[in-house]
Write a structure and sequence with these properties.
mainly alpha, single chain, 5 helices
Length: 129
């Protein structure tokens, strides 16, 4: 999808996983994100879900734009800003989902931890390069 030859030349921080780890992890995470959203949508409640939907949509957009910014434009600094915003909006999504259905929020916890880890990697690459 992206030319990773530039990425391959970068100095990477300690704990950077091998490249073949990223695709399977993201496949599992995207499946869990979808499951959490479906649970949230289907939960019958009198509580307002709009804020949760808005936060979910914002985090999804940030998630989608991070990779092209990082790999295509090679703008590590902007990618770091995006992923920090992503961290914030996934956290806000977790809080809002938890108000409606705690199980959906719990399903998103591995995703939250993974993007926190990805933030560490993005920051490390910025500092080391």
């Amino acid at each position: 999808m992206y030319d990773t030859s530039w990425y391959d030349t970068l100095v990477k921080p300690f704990l950077t996983p091998p490249p073949e780890i990223f695709t399977p992890v993201w496949i599992v995470l995207y499946i869990t994100i979808l499951i959490a959203l479906i649970i949230f949508i289907l939960k019958k409640t009198h509580k307002n879900k709009i804020t949760g939907f808005v936060y979910f949509l914002i985090q999804l957009i940030l998630n989608i734009i991070w990779a092209p910014v990082f790999f295509y434009t090679e703008n590590i600094t902007l990618a770091l800003v995006i992923i920090i915003l992503l961290d914030i909006f996934v956290f806000l999504t977790l809080k809002e989902f938890n108000k409606i259905t705690p199980i959906a929020a719990k399903i998103l916890i591995p995703y939250f931890f993974w993007i926190i880890f990805a933030t560490y990697l993005n920051f490390g690459i910025l500092i080391l390069n």
